Amino acid sequence: MTTQHETEKVSRRSLIAGIAAAGGTAAFAGVAAAQSMPGHDMAAMQDDAPSAVNPYSAPSIHEGGHGQMITVGRVDAAANGFDPTAMLTDWDFGTVSLMEDGRVLRTFEVEAIDKDIEIAPGVTFPAWTFNGRVPGPALRAKEGERLRIVFRNYGSHPHSMHFHGIHSWRMDGVPGAGLINPGEEFIYEFDARPFGCHLYHCHALPLKRHMHKGMYGAFVIDPDPELHPEFADAARSRLYGTPENARWQELVMVMNAFDTNFDNANEFYAVNTVAHAFAQQPIRIEKSRPVRIYLVNVTEFDPINSFHLHANFFDYFDTGTTLTPTLRTVDLIMQCQAQRGILEFSYAEHEAGPYMFHAHQAEFTELGWMGMFDVVEA
Amino acid sequence: MTDTSPGAPTAGWRRFAWLLAPLLVLAVAVAWIASVDPLRSFNNGAPPVEAIAFERVVLDSGGIKTFIRAGGSEPMTIAQVQIDNAYWTFTMDPPGPLARGSTAWLQVPYPWVLGEAHRINLVTNTGATFEHEIPVAVPTPVATQGQLTQQAIVGAIVGILPVAIGLMFYPALRGMGSLGMGFLLALTVGLLAFLLVDMTFEALELSLQSAALFQGQAMVILAALSTFLILMGIGRRSGQPEGLALAFYIAFGIGLHNFGEGLAIGAAFTAGSAGLGTFLVLGFAIHNVTEGIGIAAPMVDRRPPLWTFGALTLVAGLPAVFGMWLGSLAYGPQWSALALGIGAGAILQVIVEVTSYFLRRAEREGQSWLSAPVLSGFLIGLAFMYVTAAVIKI
Q: How is residue A276 annotated by DSSP?
């Protein structure tokens, strides 16, 4: 739906652009002189309408990290039914019961629902969702548990849940293995392994469309400290519910993007769906507590996405399947589509204030994937 | 209907009733269609068709301003604005949804860069995008008196000066034999033929940039056709035009052409996509000299009063100045297309009249209508215009 009005066409009678470039042709002196150049005349700027923003001056601190380079307005989170900030810490632990052999059975319930969502102020996207939200629920389990995911398709198209993890081919969520029609139900069942930061997504065809329509979510398996005696401390700090884990500020961030005009290129980039959400509402971080981010990249149409932390460095655990960092002391990592990992860092030594983070593809940043940590004392 | 003679009222009323009946049926049909909405069953839930035309772009110290016209089937809403693939704050005047055909100014405080290209991309509430490129960013000239004077000078150089120079060939052209006259008239037709082709394509091209609701291409063709017929009608009220009258028709047609030319030059300034070089202005001037020769041709065997030369020069050349002013002050591609369409119609009329004058002459003097001088005159006219146009074509 892009417009056909491409370039302001000026031809024979229009004496074009090129003239200046025609090399050495003397500018028509009188005319050139008559063209004032207000945009680049510092003196002229003072005379401008007082209400107008001066685009050539540096933004003030009050304008936030992006000054005038930001989407206009606010997304109605209530109407959407989800809020990117709340999603950062909103884990779905399912319901727990014990099986006959004494093992834990964790049951999740997930529904596929067609839903129009607001992905940027005033912009509606006809999404396909898991549980009415994009990204879908952040499922969290413990290594070794038996997982049962009851999946019901209330959408208008066939859907599935394909988990990145270890399981039988029959549970893979591809055609013939848990890909179901509208109105149907399927129960995926497998053991939670390996531990790490994973994801799930719909594997119906055409895959690209089902992905960028919003059918994905984070899937985290915490390590069992008893299975990793040599790194028990690290494992305990990851395992939800332990005192060691409680001191961490854990955030789940799903890097995603939306192609609103169906040209196979994204108009909006974000973490947890809403462009510029964390630029407009910075994420509160307490100085004294370390930060752990479960970062998942599901950006469609672009080969990679990235995460860059300002004024700080972090340790990175690729795919989260190790208890020692796979990268130490970096301030930027990149992830291919479906690549994910865990970031650990701290602002304990810093002075309180706003610290930026964003994709270090400048284009993604400027199209919405940028936010701030509001580091506070405490 | 207003016949007052006795006995006639019945016939008058009956005629009135016959006129009323179809109108009544039409009104009922419209009311019925509007209330029953038989098209409802075709509604398949698809989003409404949206369209945006960018009619003006202004670059100044406040950033980028653009004047847009909506062409959607339903009112449409601009949700976000990207400049160069970055979301940017913006204000819209008037705010709110844009009804079909309505217009608004968008102001974006974007620090554009002199001499570089920028890309505006509007995102509507449905996620549809509408893109517009600024090929070379230069400040939009402000309409000051100095500016208008400068434009008038440029307009005079590309419009008035060459016509005046062309007319100065008049004494030299006089005393030509009938073969020479044939050559000269054919030369005129040749240059006019070039202008007709060039202008028509230019108008059609411009019309593509205007909002769909203007139906640009149909508008251009219909404007040209109407102009042609009206001018033919006027011209032939008292026989077929010759001599001075024909010269004025040629001047008028060329004047419309120069008006369109001026519009485009002025608009190019405003669009921030033009710079004027001495080289180019000279190219234009030389290119347009032929126009003056063409105007002079039908008067060669008359003896017109001196003032007519001044008048002819102004009729043919002055519109370039007005065009420049209008083009730089208020510009929509549809208006330029319309002006050029009218110009094409006028040129066509002149071609027809000059040709018919030439044919009558040839018959009177018992000459072949396609002699070597005539053919070469036509081709030289075409070639001269083509080659000099190549110089100024970008």
A: T
Contact in structure between A71 and A368 (CB atoms under 8 Å):
yes
Residues of A in contact with B128 (CB under 8 A): 1, 260-261
Tell me how far apart the alpha carbons of residues B379 and B384 are, in angstroms, rounded to a whole number: 8
Are the CB atoms for B39 and B45 separated by under 8 Å?
no
Judged by CB atoms closer than 8 Å, whether chains meet at B267 and A26 is answered as: no
Joined together, the tokens standing for residue B141 give 């000239």
Residue ranges and CATH numbers for the domains of chain A are: 91-241 (2.60.40.420)
Contact: A70, B89; criterion CB under 8 Å: yes
Count CB-CB contacts under 10 A for residue B4: 7
d(CA A239, CA A226): 11
Residues of B in contact with A123 (CB under 8 A): 79-80, 123-127
- What is each CA distance from A316 to A126, A345, B50, B148, in whole angstroms? 35, 9, 46, 64
Distance from CA of A16 to the nearest CA of B (A): 4
Pairing between strand A353-358 and A185-191? Answer: unpaired
Nearest of B111, B76, B105, B112 to residue B91 by alpha carbon:
B105
Q: Does A350 show up as a binding residue in the annotation?
A: no
Q: Per the annotation, does A358 bind a ligand?
A: no
Of A5, A25, A52, the CB nearest to B53: A5
Looking up tokens 């709110």 gives B96
Closest by CA to A148, choosing from A119, A120, A178, A118, is A178
In degrees and rounded to multiples of 5, residue B237 shows phi and psi of -55, -45
Residue B321 distance to chain A (closest CA, Å): 13
Per-residue pLDDT band for B43 (boundaries 50, 70, 90) equals: low
User: What amino acid is encoded at B255 in this protein?
Assistant: G
Q: Do A69 and B86 touch (CB under 8 A)?
A: yes
**Which residues, 6+ apart, have CB-to-CB distance to A273 below 8 Å?**
A82, A84, A117, A119, A134, A135, A214, A254, A256, A258
Q: Which residues pair with A185 in a beta bridge?
A: A152
Cβ distance A121 to B114 less than 8 Å, yes or no, reads no
Q: In this predicted model, which residue has the larger pLDDT, B40 or B278?
A: B40
Judge contact between B52 and A92, C-beta under 8 A.
Answer: no
Which stretches of chain A score pLDDT less than 70? Answer: 1-52, 61-65
Q: How many angstroms from the chain centroid is the CA of residue A107? A: 26
Taking 60 as the threshold, does the pLDDT of residue B172 lie above it?
yes
For B135, the closest chain A residue by CA position comes to: A7
Per-residue pLDDT tens digits for B123-133 = 999 999 999 99
Average pLDDT over residues B341-345: 86
Mean pLDDT of B254-271: 74
In this complex, which of B135, B141, B261 lies closest to A7 when CB atoms are compared? B135
Q: Which residue is closest to B78 within chain A, CA to CA?
A: A122
Closest by CA to B167, choosing from B259, B298, B350, B291, is B291
Q: How far apart are CA A377 and CA A288, in angstroms?
A: 7
Whole-angstrom Cα distance, residue A63 to residue A211? Answer: 34
Asked if residue A215 belongs to a known ligand binding site, the reply is yes
Q: Please indicate whether, in this complex, the C-beta atoms of A28 and B82 are within 8 angstroms of each other.
A: no
Ramachandran area for residue B272 (φ above 0: left; ψ -120 to 50: alpha; else beta): left
Instruction: Name every residue whose Cβ is closer than 8 Å to that of residue B385 and which is 6 or more positions away in sequence.
Output: B190, B191, B194, B195, B198, B287, B290
